[in-house]
Amino acid sequence: MTAVQQTIHVGGEWRAALSGATREIIDPVDATAFAVVAEGGVRDTDDAVAAARAAFDDGSWPRTPVAERAALLRRVAALLERDRERIGALESQDAGKTMEEGRVDVDCVRDAFLYFADLVEKEDGGRVVDAGSPDIHSVVVHEPVGVCALITPWNYPLLQASWKIAPALAAGNTFVIKPSEITPLSTVVLVELLLEAGLPLGAANIVTGPGHTVGARLAEHPHVDLVSFTGGLVSGTKVARAAADSVKKVALELGGKNPNVVFADACSTPEGFDTAVDQALNAAFIHSGQVCSAGSRLIVEEPLRARFVAELARRAELIRLGRGTDEGVECGPLVSAAQVARTEEYVASALGEGAVLRAGGERPAGPGYFYRPTVLDRCHRGMRVVREEIFGPVLTVETFRTEEEAVALANDTEYGLAGAVWTADEDRARRVAARLRHGTVWINDFHPYLPQAEWGGFGKSGIGRELGPSGLAEYREAKHIYRNLAPRPVRWFAGTTAKDQA
């Protein structure tokens, strides 16, 4: 275990928590501590906000030309490429994911910085509005919103940080970021890379610490102009309430309970069947199911159910668990003991409500926070395991007989983040995709996203969007500038003299 790291960065200075508090970072593979970080509090948060406020109000970054801002983002992307293996390994150890997942995350972070660099650089000087008169010049421009509070989750700490930091900086904002207290290390490294790339001091600030102190203070702080939060529904609603008093902008991504709808015609060939089963495994068990868009609800056409579930369960039992950096490991542990206990409780609840266990359903022998990929058959919408987000390697199976029933089941959720439909019928694919009330809909695929395309959900999956042009717009304010080129009296009010009128 390393010495205590100064993981709070305020106004250009790395430092310990003002209280001296620290937190051990736990390796979920063996439940041992491998790092110690500063445990910031309210005073640290206030200092970080003050630094970001000064950097926005009086500093250079908001007034830096767009081309220079884009160039800095590209330098960050190059540094990520340089440090890909080191950061990927850190993400693997901290969050429990496989090394390949860690590498892919770094690549996706790089792509996000490159995308927002390109996006802002290609923009023109604003949207000209036709006022109907040659004497009027009217234009809508976009300006940075100000000081941004960025609160990120533990499952994809580096990736989620980039989805907020890259557009925030591209737009000219300053920020304070609070990573999850469970997995903060890669975000600390990302801030280091921003400074190495030449970001002015004070534009990027980080406070490592718990949500109930650091996160809560950021959400309520009167000098924060926007709060962007990714995490659970309960915490997200608290953020929204805290932000309401100062009427700051709020963006929330709050997870999902995502349907993966499989029609029998998608499996009419051996290749189609193999692909659909393989993708159902990926949808549910990547990163041990700790994914906001995980396809944790398999909704399969009834005539296909028995064959599909049998093969799915067989393959699930073969998934190799272990340390993500070890050769041949396909799935890592859950992030914490609490997450294992949560998963166990949901599985026990499902079995008590009549679900049939087809695979997994237990912790393997040995240390760490592992849980076997689990397939629960004969599920229905009355079960908690079907309604509530678990964030664990648990796949539930429901069935349908008609297209109408499939759509109804897929939409029968308070969330609406993502969903998929598998079918060989192009007309059906278009119909079902159009009717699914989810922010992302995949057809014959699951999980890919593009930095150019908006990400976010309907219903209780949140408000606002990340990525795409809308992801940049979240970090901006629109301003209408109206210029009269030939001003003259309006004569709206009476009271002028005849001489004046003459």
UniProtKB/TrEMBL annotation:
Pathway named in the protein's UniProt entry: Amine and polyamine biosynthesis; betaine biosynthesis via choline pathway; betaine from betaine aldehyde: step 1/1
Keyword line: NAD, Oxidoreductase
PROSITE patterns: ALDEHYDE_DEHYDR_CYS (PS00070), ALDEHYDE_DEHYDR_GLU (PS00687)
Superkingdom, taxonomy of origin: Bacteria
Catalytic residues identified in the record: E253
Stored Pfam families: Aldedh (PF00171)
Keyword Oxidoreductase (UniProt): yes
Family to which the UniProt record says this protein belongs: Belongs to the aldehyde dehydrogenase family.
Protein name: Aldehyde dehydrogenase family protein
Source organism of this protein record: Streptomyces zaomyceticus
